[in-house]
Amino acid sequence: MRIYDIIMKKRNGFPNTREELDSLIMGFVEGIVPDYQMAAWLMAVYFNHLNAEERFHLTEIMIESGDRIDLSSIKGRKIDKHSTGGVGDKVTLVVGPIVAAAGLVFAKLSGRGLGHTGGTIDKLESIPGFVTSLDIEQFKRQAERIGIALAGQTAQVAVADKKLYALRDLTATVDEISLIASSIMSKKLAVDSDGILLDVKIGTGAFMKDLDGAKTLARAMIDLGRKNGRATKAVISDMNQPLGVSVGNSLEVVEAIDTLKGRGPQDFSSLCRIIAGQMLVAGGMKSEADALRTVDRLILSGEALRKFDEFVYAQGGPEGFSASYAVHFKEAEIVEEVRTSVSGYVQSVDAESIGLICMRLGAGRERKEDVIDPSVGIRILKRIGDRVEKDEVIAVIYANDKRNADNEAKKLVDSFVISEQKTSPPPIVYEVI
User: Using CA atoms in the order 396, 399, 405, 408, what is the torsion angle rounded to 10 degrees?
Assistant: First the structure.
């Protein structure tokens, strides 16, 4: 069949068949279909979208384009998690040890950060000695032995998605819900699991800016998960301000440890509790109330924190890391307080702006080849709805370049909108689907 006809069919608003999608996608992966034809099809999808059947077929083809990670030999229920990304999102570092301590197997492939969003792999690699480049057999053995393993995404999983995403990024077709859903779920479904928890974020620091769009994306991904036999749930959570207090790799690891000790920031602790509870339900626990009680017990008893330490040590990090991280983490040379020039109430905190400031400080990447500085970042001390007085400290910058820190401090002040009108803080979770 002619690729021209496949493109024209989608351009005219008609669905593509499984055979047509297979010819198009695999032809692109094999170098038979050129970039310009693939780009034309992507733009046709951007305007005409994919129906549920097309999404299912596209996801299936992308899974089949690479390796599958078979965890069926590992006893117990396997649970996976995905976040659509945000600023200060270190949830995986907390919920992974919790669900593993509860008896589930948490085996997850994670990504690196790019732009204003952070990546779990970058946070873990801020821990001295921590190895994320596990091969498939190492990944499986560790998951079986201690119930938790996290590794960087292998180049051989969902090969078609990697090539497609690179072209989407160049052709302004990234933000189409069917393509987002298929991209995410092709990677999740390539790893064997019994359940998947999706953390779909909305707000200024998230990919999805509004609740309706987030719900549509969540339902599309849930549909793909369930059609593939996975118990799939989604939490719609807020990203209108950074999550928790800390943004930056080693700073976020410390905040995750504090949360596992039961003394993390309220918003972050609350979200971790809800997500971990939903993961336990997706993993087979009968009621949400029982799941939440289990989460509370594992934190109070210290079992979740011990599982975190076991996990860090298993992947090359220091033994007993949660008690000794201050010795191992290099501190930033410059610690600069950022103060407000007015009194009032915090109306908004621009999460995307703060993520970009962190990136420019060295905590993230503008380009894939950029090198991360694990010691730099920001602590946000005031949140939406808080009262502030003139000259009060609203944030702290951690940097290793004085001029850079001074420049970004000015931008950080502008990330806060303060007025005399009191504003209620947004909910941390909007809905569980």
Answer: -70
Q: How far is residue 5's CA from residue 192's CA, in Å, rounded to a whole number?
A: 36
Sign of the Cα pseudo-torsion (85, 151, 109, 141, in order): negative
Active-site annotation, residues: 82, 161, 168, 183, 187
| 78-324 fold | Pyrimidine Nucleoside Phosphorylase; Chain A, domain 2 (3.40.1030)
SS3 169: helix
Tokens 């009621």, residue located: 287
Does residue 364 come out as left (phi exceeding 0), alpha (psi in the -120 to 50 range) or beta? Answer: beta
Task: Report the 10 Å Cβ neighbour count for 371.
Answer: 6
For 415, residues 6+ apart whose C-beta sits below 8 A from its C-beta are 349, 350, 353, 354, 357
Return the SS3 of 393: strand
Give the distance, in angstroms, between the CA of residue 166 and the centroid of all CA atoms in the same chain: 19
pTM tops 0.85, yes or no: yes
Query: Can you tell me the distance from the alpha carbon of 324 to that of 411, in angstroms, rounded to the nearest whole number?
Result: 34
Q: Each residue of 346-403: pLDDT tens digit?
A: 999 999 999 999 999 998 887 777 788 999 999 999 999 999 999 999 999 999 999 9
- 307 contact partners, CB below 8 Å, separation of at least 6: 97, 98, 100, 101, 146, 147, 148
Fold entry, domain 3-48: 1.20.970
Exposed e or buried b per residue across 383-413, where buried means at least 16 C-beta atoms within 10 angstroms of its C-beta: bbebebeeeeebbbbbbbbeebbeebbeebe
Amino acid at 7: I
Domain ranges of the chain: 3-48, 78-324, 334-419
**334-419: which CATH number, 3.30.70.260, 3.30.450.20, 3.90.1170.30, 3.30.1300.10?**
3.90.1170.30
